[in-house]
Write a structure and sequence with these properties.
The termini are far apart. A hairpin with a 3-residue loop joins β1 and β2. The radius of gyration is 17 Å and the shape is globular. α1 crosses α3, α3 packs antiparallel against α4 and α4 packs antiparallel against α5. The chain is built from 9 helices and 2 strands. A two-stranded antiparallel ribbon has the order 1-2. The N terminus is likely disordered. It has 227 residues and is mostly helical.
Length: 227
């Protein structure tokens, strides 16, 4: 049910891949093996997106499907899609242009991973994002957190870990929208990024996976795009 090793092209919202090239993808992409439960769930989610089904409806848990599998599929998909978006702005998001991982003047995010960065530390935005993507990649490849064997249940740590991943990925949206939206406009991909954001927002709010205080930096934009 949960055999899902390996990496490949990003599983992005339709349209993004036609603008962002593979060689500008920020990190390797994880895929699902054909015939597995997660592959089928991914296909179902992707088909709903491409069929123009209401995003609010397509994020709801399918009947008779496991909630943990549904979350795992979306964590990996959003990781892939946001990787792709970051690949399109990384040439303008530099240590000089973005010395902190900020969201305007009111918000700044510090990196902490209990490894090299044992305490929250201010780092340039591109370094924060790079550390984040490495951290997520290690987690989704850790079978103690993301089990691939159908006979092994998800551990208690899975859902808190998924929530932390999604919370930190939201911060990437915050930085990109507040500091690099002009780049998205110059690439003419803002509509595709908005679609990705709406999908993300509807999913995390439908399932209460990101706290409201974390969503606050983009509240006004979310009201316009999603409400």
């Amino acid at each position: 049910m949960r055999k899902s090793k390996g990496f490949h092209r990003p599983m992005a919202a339709k349209g993004l891949s036609s603008f962002f090239q593979k060689d500008k993808t920020f990190r390797p992409k994880r895929k699902y093996e054909d015939g597995t439960m997660r592959y089928e769930l991914h296909k179902q989610s992707k088909a709903s997106l491409h069929a123009g089904i209401d995003l609010k409806e397509c994020v709801k848990l399918p009947k008779d499907q496991d909630f943990m599998d549904w979350v795992a599929v979306h964590v990996v998909d959003f990781y892939n899609r946001i990787n792709l978006i970051v690949g399109g702005i990384q040439d303008v998001c530099t240590e000089d242009s973005c010395p902190t991982m900020s969201g305007g003047k009111r918000y700044e995010y510090h990196w902490c991973d209990k490894g090299k960065y044992k305490k929250p530390t201010s780092v340039p935005a591109i370094e924060y994002i790079s550390l984040l993507m490495d951290w997520i990649e290690n987690l989704i490849n850790n079978e103690d957190i993301f089990p691939v064997d159908k006979d092994i249940p998800f551990p208690k740590a899975f859902l808190p870990t998924a929530k932390k991943i999604l919370t930190r990925l939201f911060r990437v949206f915050v930085h990109i929208y507040m500091h690099h939206f002009d780049r998205l406009q110059s690439l003419r991909v803002e509509a595709h990024v908005n679609q990705c954001y709406k999908h993300f927002y509807y999913f995390v709010t439908e399932h209460n996976l990101v706290e409201a205080k974390e969503l606050e930096p983009l509240r006004e934009m979310s009201q316009k795009l999603c409400w």
